[in-house]
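Private note to self, pasted from the team thread so I don't lose it. Backbone tokens:
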């Protein structure tokens, strides 16, 4: 693996590394983004964050809010796989966004905002003309001693703020590094959120602790998912067989 770019800025050490056509962003030893234009579904954990969108007809996910943008791995996947037109990416680290623009080609179709995602969402949710999105991705993690750590709440108030920014029929997607917390997520336990998001799926892969919990106002249509995977594998032959790694299930509240 070659180091393409490396710099320490305000006590954070950043590296962009390449391995063949794959680019990876590391901050303080933690892999924050990974992208291969020849293999948009590559068997990495970021695949799972994009998978919920593949259950909806192409063209139905037009606008996406990404909280914790990193260098834009999921944004690139959504642009390539479901042709998302507009992505708003929020990240507290402006260096991440600079790398997203300069190395990961996220300038087209992405509005990148350097801000505290919690404060940004709270402000938008309180505004009378709040923006609305077809899909919101919550991937808010920092690192501590080279380990990913959650840096935003996952309580009822936070989920209510997010829900205000979702269009009717849209979805919320959470990246969870602690599987035991999935059954306690407010969209599974709160009556009003259950009504707004009556459909739910959890995605995982063997070898990873992460669980991607998706809550939707529209059904997850298995036939649509299979057809979109078939088309993706036709366009990108190197993606063939990767779907065998994905495990989907229906979550239950506790």
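Design output:
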């Amino acid at each position: 693996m070659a180091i393409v770019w490396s710099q320490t800025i305000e006590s954070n050490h950043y590296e962009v590394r390449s391995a063949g056509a794959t680019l990876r962003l590391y901050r303080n030893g933690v892999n924050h983004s990974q992208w291969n234009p020849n293999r948009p579904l590559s068997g990495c954990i970021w695949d799972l964050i994009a998978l919920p969108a593949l259950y909806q007809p192409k063209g139905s996910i037009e606008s996406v809010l990404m909280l914790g943008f990193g260098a834009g791995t999921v944004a690139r996947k959504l642009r390539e796989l479901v042709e998302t037109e507009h992505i708003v990416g929020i990240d507290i680290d402006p260096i991440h966004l600079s790398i997203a623009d300069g190395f990961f080609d996220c300038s087209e179709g992405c509005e990148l905002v350097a801000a505290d995602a919690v404060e940004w969402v709270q402000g938008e949710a309180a505004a009378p003309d709040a923006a609305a999105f077809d899909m919101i991705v919550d991937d808010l993690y920092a690192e501590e001693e080279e380990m990913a750590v959650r840096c935003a709440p996952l309580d009822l108030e936070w989920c209510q703020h997010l829900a205000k920014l979702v269009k009717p029929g849209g979805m919320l997607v959470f990246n969870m590094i602690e599987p035991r917390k999935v059954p306690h997520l407010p969209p599974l336990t709160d009556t009003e959120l259950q009504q707004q998001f009556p459909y739910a799926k959890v995605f995982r892969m063997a070898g990873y602790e992460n669980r991607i919990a998706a809550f939707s106002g529209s059904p997850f249509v298995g036939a649509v998912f299979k057809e979109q995977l078939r088309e993706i594998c036709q366009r990108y032959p190197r993606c063939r067989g990767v779907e065998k790694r994905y495990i989907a299930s229906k979550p239950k509240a506790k």
